[in-house]
Design a protein that fits this description.
The complex is a heterotrimer. Chain A has a 4-stranded mixed β-sheet, with helices on one face. Mean pLDDT of chain A is 88; it is low at 1-5. Chain A is built from 7 helices and 4 strands. Helix content of chain A is 44%, strand content 11%. Chain B has 3 domains: 2-75, Ubiquitin-like (UB roll) (Roll), CATH 3.10.20.740; 98-206, 2-Layer Sandwich (Alpha-Beta Plaits), CATH 3.30.70; 211-566, 3-Layer(aba) Sandwich (Rossmann fold). Chain B has helices spanning 19-25, 77-91, 108-115, 151-159, 194-198, 210-218, 249-259, 267-288, 300-309, 323-338, 356-362, 380-389, 411-414, 421-435, 473-488, 518-534, 544-554, 560-566, and strands at 2-6, 9-13, 49-52, 59-60, 71-73, 139-141, 166-168, 175-177, 204-206, 223-228, 263-266, 294-295, 346-352, 376-379, 453-460, 463-471, 496-500. A 5-stranded mixed β-sheet of chain B has the order 2-1-5-3-4, sandwiched between helices. Chain B has a 4-stranded parallel β-sheet with strand order 11-10-13-14, with helices on both faces. Chain B has a 4-stranded mixed β-sheet with strand order 12-17-16-15. In chain B, helix 8 (267-288) packs across helix 10 (323-338) and helix 8 crosses helix 14 (421-435). Chain B is globular. Chain B starts with a strand and ends in a 7-residue tail after the last helix. By secondary structure, chain C is of the alpha/beta class. Chain C is 45% helix and 14% strand. Chain C has helices at residues 17-22, 27-32, 37-46, 59-64, 87-94, 96-110, 124-139, 169-176, 205-217, 219-223, 256-262, 294-299, 318-332, 338-355, 363-377, 381-385, 387-396, 398-415, and strands at residues 73-78, 114-119, 144-148, 151-159, 200-204, 233-240, 246-251, 270-275, 282-283, 308-313. Chain C has a 5-stranded mixed β-sheet. A 5-stranded mixed β-sheet of chain C has the order 7-6-10-8-9. In chain C, helix 3 packs across helix 6 (96-110), helix 6 packs across helix 9 (205-217) and helix 13 (318-332) runs antiparallel to helix 14 (338-355). The mean pLDDT of chain C is 92. Classes of the chains: A alpha+beta, B alpha/beta, C alpha/beta. At the A-C interface, helix 2, helix 4 and helix 5 of A face strand 6, strand 10 and helix 13 of C.
């Protein structure tokens, strides 16, 4: 049904997950989470494949992917540095952190470095306002971050 | 009944009526950009806000049900300010090229901007600079002009169940699209053009071929041959101020001749031809235990839909080409031969109520004549534009006749334009050809009208033939699901099914005059049945020109040459 | 029982079920299982529990709509997306069982068979810890099959995709059903037709935790805390320019001043306070004496909302705050209705230009008018709520905005 540009293969884990969720109503978002876990983003071919596997129109899948901030259509860096831009973080200098990160890494927001290692993303409130300003990298939350700490944080990620 | 007051008028309306519709009955036209009488209310635009006693907030008239004793204000200073403000917000995102826009004069946004006297814009203008999507065969999308009302999504999902497009992104970046990076042409879109029908602005329109047609007309080497579909003759008049359903076929022949078309034929002729081919196919399948139910194949929107969503049922679909393609093939073979014209020099043009016909004509297998069988498809709206460009006074133009040999038609052919018409025409002929008896009444009223799914059964000499008719692809889906499920159980609920992609049939096609509402579709349907009633011959197998064509060229229905020229195949997508 | 320690007592305990059981945990459920639906709802009604998600709707009224139609669902709204709000995160991190117990009680009261916890996609570690908590509850027989002879109830965790509007209950249900998180028009209310057209009851994390407390300690006890109209304990989130930002617990009706002093006081000189989240008004310092409960706040033309308090000092530029908030609204609008889709964009655009020194004289009037259009015609509370922050900044801090615009206009005149 869907036009597949390139072949893409899903891991057995992802296959099983989709098979398990296939019959559950409202499965789409959970499946997309799992796809993104596997690829780091949702490639076109993966969206085509999901459309086919769970029999949902491709347009709807893209409608959902593009509605939610969490889902990505481009591959982020290995270390995606999320900078909170909620009101509290903003007041404590969140946007300065973004500026400094762009300087340090030489990339713009939502871009990845040429080696694919880093990317920067501005995100809405991550619910850590007590620690403002906050960076989130992977599962780790860095609180009360100052500009001076950024080179150290980046160096810590490099290995 | 419910009694309520709209401004100063107290009226009674049926229970379940929205405040917006109640106001209409009270003579008040509450503005809206998203509500359409044929579609589920969407509540997106906010233009229809009204002030209702007892409610803290203003309410959307389109999604608020009228209740007993309601007091509604529709024209307060606050509401006027609100509506103007909303229009200003929308216009700030809308391109200013109204003069070049295909919808200039018929655009709902433009009309409201004028009605509310938006003369200046205080907001800074921003437009999105998105590229035109011209990849679909019949539909052009200009998302810069999209106001995101959602009617197209609603019709594509709910009425057609094609689900080619949806809302993408969010906030002010919300856009309607087939998907991230997916073009309309590579999507599951079937080109039915119902999105065009309901679009309030110039965001969706037919892919025009007017320039190409003028060019062919201006080329002395080219012989331009035209055919006119059944549904066009009861709709084109609307473009010139005539009532929906007015039969204007004689004026159309005349206008085409004035435009410089060399030979004028009628798709109704090949509709009769289709009945003979398809009727024969049905009788054959019935008698030889072939795949049943047989499903009609005239509607190209349905064909692509079937290829996409029901590949397992494709052997049920009649192998007959549509009337447009049958006539196209005959023109470049039989007609070319008998008139000693090199088919190379023939430009075959069809006037259709349909945007999907543009897709059909361009299908790679539609070249059995050795050439592309139909070169250009113009919609009813495009023909109207050509007539206006030529300065023809359509309303007062003298009626003329078409050219002979490929234009005679019966009442059975003309009702092809209405849902149920193909079925009725087929039954008229199948009955008489099978039984060799004359039908008492030719009117199968159970099959007529705009209802989504219609069923009937016909007794042909003791054999009960069960038939079903659907219009609107979501109804086709319902019907096909019944067939597919029955098939799994080894049952066959119907012998013969007619499917038309658009609500009401071809008269409601995506190429028909705008303001193509269900109410107008019903009037056009009446126009077709009135013509059927008045025609001297009402059965396809009595069409003398069709019989002549068999005698001189095709031999008999279902012959080898017929199969070669008039039949086709389908591909799962 | 220390009445300002009902949530905070768990801060130094583990989230494990044993620690919760030691704190009287699940005694509320055990009590509930001896009562009828009506008796439980009566207890909640008597306690006057108002929903803690933001709207302050009486929980008992929501539950009373139950018709016994099955299947029906309980949804725990854990999509905590309000900037400056992190109280649900606190509960789910430190006392997840308090929320789970409340959910099971709710299910028993409305005869629901299945529950969903809709949690922010941004809280992945909390989601996986919650899975563990659900397992614990099931092992102890508080959840799953046969909690009693004829009551079974299971809970599934669903991760959200990141959308603020999904905090609205109908948008949340659309999201749970795998759709774009856009709101629908009520009626039908979720309690009549919610998930897959079935009755659905949606409660916030803190509300459900309060349900546990009411069943554990009684309605009268609950009413003894807080104000008569808005009783009970409340978690407040204090962030911005205070010495010790964080989650604080205090009875409903405490003053802003009380909370700020709990957070160690203001850093520098107080300038403005935003109460209730991004959709709340931004007040000048007189808000220090406001009482933080639903009724008092609405009498001040504001909202208690999620209980978020963002403190700003004289270093904070109000134009910049307005810009950040308008950008937030523009990015988070679901895009369904025109006023919100286009209004947030223009507001964000104008606020941005004011900050950049490109503001025009008519911007303030136009911003106010835009906010009015949005309040008058937005489809859901999200769009309507933009009016509060916009108008409050325009009213309370107009001098500052005017100065920025005047400067620009002056420069323009000189250039001419």
């Amino acid at each position: 049904m869907a036009v597949t540009n390139e072949a893409i293969s899903f891991s057995p884990v992802l296959h099983d997950f989709i098979a398990e969720w296939k019959e559950k109503p409202g499965n789409l978002i959970m499946i997309l989470h799992k796809v993104q876990e596997e690829f780091g983003f949702i490639p076109r071919a993966a969206a085509d494949k999901v459309a086919e596997m769970i029999d949902v129109p491709l347009a709807k899948i893209y409608g959902v992917i593009t509605f939610y901030h969490f889902f990505k259509l481009e591959k982020p860096g290995t270390h995606n540095i999320q900078v909170c831009l909620g009101t509290a973080c903003y007041m404590k200098g969140g946007s300065n952190l973004i500026d400094e990160l762009q300087n340090l890494l030489g990339i713009a927001v939502n871009e990845a470095t040429a080696d694919g290692k880093f990317s920067i993303e501005g995100v809405r409130c991550v619910g850590c306002c007590g620690l403002a300003p906050v960076l989130v990298i992977g599962d780790e939350v860095f609180g009360k971050v100052t500009k001076d700490q950024l080179p150290g944080i980046i160096a810590g990620l490099s290995d | 009944m419910i009694t309520l007051t709209i401004d100063k008028t107290t009226i009674q309306v049926a229970k379940g009526t929205s405040v917006l519709d109640a106001a209409k009955q009270a003579g008040v036209d509450i503005p809206t950009l998203c509500r359409h009488e044929d579609l589920t209310p969407l509540g997106t635009c906010g233009m229809c806000m009204v002030d209702i006693d007892g409610f803290k907030d203003l309410q959307r008239a389109c999604i608020t049900e009228a209740v007993e004793g309601m007091q509604v204000q529709t024209n307060t200073p606050q509401l006027r300010k609100l509506r103007r403000g909303l229009l200003e917000l929308v216009l700030a995102t809308h391109p200013d090229d109204c003069l070049q826009c295909i919808k200039h004069g018929s655009c709902e946004l433009q009309k409201l901007a004028d009605r509310f006297e938006i003369r200046t814009l205080r907001y800074d203008k921003y437009t999105r600079g998105l590229p035109l999507d011209r990849t679909a065969a019949g539909i052009v999308r200009d998302m810069n002009k999209c106001i995101g009302c959602g009617r197209c999504v609603s019709v594509c999902h709910e009425v057609q169940s094609v689900k080619a497009i949806d809302f993408m992104g969010r906030g002010s970046d919300t856009i309607i699209s087939p998907g991230y990076g997916v073009s309309m042409g590579s999507s599951v879109c079937v080109n039915c053009g119902q999105c065009i029908v309901y679009c309030p602005t110039g965001a969706l329109y037919e892919k025009e071929m007017i320039d190409e047609v003028w060019e062919a007309l201006d080329d002395p080497k080219k012989v331009v041959v035209a055919q006119v579909a059944p549904a066009v003759r009861v709709a084109l008049g609307e473009e010139f101020g005539m009532a929906p359903g007015s039969l204007v076929i004689g004026k159309i022949y005349s206008a085409l001749r004035s435009l410089g078309i060399d030979y004028i034929f009628d798709t109704n002729f090949s509709a009769d031809l289709t009945i003979l081919e398809e009727g024969t196919e049905l009788l054959e399948r019935l008698s030889s235990g072939g795949t049943l139910p047989l499903i009609t194949s005239c509607s190209p929107g349905w064909i692509k839909f079937g290829e996409t969503y029901y590949p397992e049922l494709l052997d049920h679909v009649s192998t007959c080409k549509s009337p447009q393609q049958m006539l196209g093939t005959i023109i470049k073979t039989y007609f070319a031969k008998t008139h000693t014209i090199d088919p190379e020099n023939i430009v075959s043009l069809s006037i259709m109520p349909c945007t999907a016909k543009k897709f059909e004509a361009a299908r790679p297998e539609m070249n059995d004549s050795g050439y592309q069988d139909v070169d250009y498809v113009l919609t009813t709206r495009e023909l109207a534009r050509m007539i206006r460009q030529a300065g023809l006074q359509f309303k007062s133009i003298q009626e003329e006749n078409p050219d002979p040999v490929l234009s005679q038609y019966t009442g059975a052919a003309t009702i092809f334009g209405a849902s149920g018409g193909v079925m009725e025409a087929a039954i008229r002929s199948a009955y008489e050809l099978k039984t060799q008896k004359t039908l008492g009444s030719l009117d199968f009223t159970d099959l007529r009208g705009i209802e989504g799914i219609k069923k009937a059964s016909v007794d042909i000499e003791g054999t009960e033939v069960r038939v079903a008719v659907s219009n609107g692809l979501s109804n086709a889906r319902k019907l096909l699901n019944i067939v597919a499920e029955a098939k799994e159980r080894g049952e066959m609920p119907f012998h013969f099914i007619e499917i038309m992609a658009c609500r009401g049939g071809c008269i409601g096609g995506g190429g028909q005059p705008l303001e193509n509402t269900l109410a107008k579709r019903a009037q056009r349907i009446e126009g077709l049945y009135a013509e059927d009633k008045n025609l001297p011959i009402r059965k396809s197998h009595e069409n003398a020109e069709v019989l002549g064509l068999y005698k001189e060229f095709l031999q008999k229905p279902g012959s080898e040459i017929s199969h070669h020229l008039l039949h086709t195949h389908y591909t799962a997508r | 029982m220390n009445q300002t320690d009902l949530f905070l007592r768990f801060k130094n305990l583990s989230p494990n079920i044993d620690d919760y059981l030691n704190e009287n945990g699940y005694s509320g459920l055990r009590t509930a299982l001896t009562l009828t639906s009506a008796q439980i709802i009566e207890k909640i009604e008597k306690a006057r529990l108002l929903g803690r998600g933001g709207a302050g709707f009486p929980t008992a009224i929501k539950w009373k709509a139950s018709t016994g139609k099955t299947p029906s669902y309980i949804v725990c709204n854990a999509d905590e997306g309000e900037p400056g709000t992190f109280k649900d995160r606190f509960i789910m991190t430190h006392s997840p069982h308090m929320m789970i117990e409340g959910m099971v009680i709710a299910a028993y009261a409305v005869k629901a068979t299945k529950g969903y916890i809709y949690i922010r996609g941004e809280y992945p570690e909390i989601a996986s810890n919650l899975e563990n908590s659900l397992l614990e509850a099931e092992q102890r027989g508080y959840l799953g099959k046969n909690i009693t002879k004829d009551f079974s109830f299971s809970i599934e965790i669903i991760k959200g995709g990141g959308s603020y509007v999904v905090g609205d209950e109908t948008a949340l249900l659309n999201s749970l059903m795998g759709n774009r998180g856009i709101p629908w028009n009520k009626p039908p209310f979720p309690a009549e037709k919610g998930l897959w057209e079935q009755p659905t009851y949606i409660n916030n994390v803190e509300t459900l935790a309060c349900v546990s407390l009411i069943l554990q300690y009684g309605s009268d006890w609950f009413r003894s805390i807080g104000t008569p109209e808005s009783p009970g304990p409340k978690l407040y989130c204090i962030s911005g320019k205070v010495q010790s930002p964080g989650v604080y617990e205090a009875p409903m009706g405490s003053t802003v001043r009380d909370l700020i002093s709990l957070a160690g006081g203001v850093i520098g000189t107080l300038k403005a306070i935003q109460i209730g989240g991004t959709a709340g008004p931004i007040y000048p310092s007189e808000a220090l004496d406001f009482h933080l409960d639903f009724k008092s706040m609405s009498s001040k033309g504001g909202i208690l909302g999620s209980g978020a308090i963002v403190v700003m000092n004289t270093d904070t530029s109000m134009a910049e705050v307005l810009e950040v908030e308008m950008r937030f609204f523009a990015e988070e609008s679901c895009g369904k209705c025109f006023p919100c889709r286009y209004g947030t964009r223009q507001l964000s655009f104008m606020a941005n230009n004011i900050v950049l020194g490109k503001g025009k004289r008519d911007f303030l009037e136009l911003m106010e008018e835009t906010a009015d259009i949005m309040k008058g015609s937005s489809f859901c509370p999200f769009g309507k709520s933009v009016e509060m922050p916009v108008k409050s900044v325009l009213n309370n801090f107009s001098g500052e905005l005017h100065a920025l615009i005047r400067q620009n206009d002056y420069i323009r005149e000189v250039q001419i």
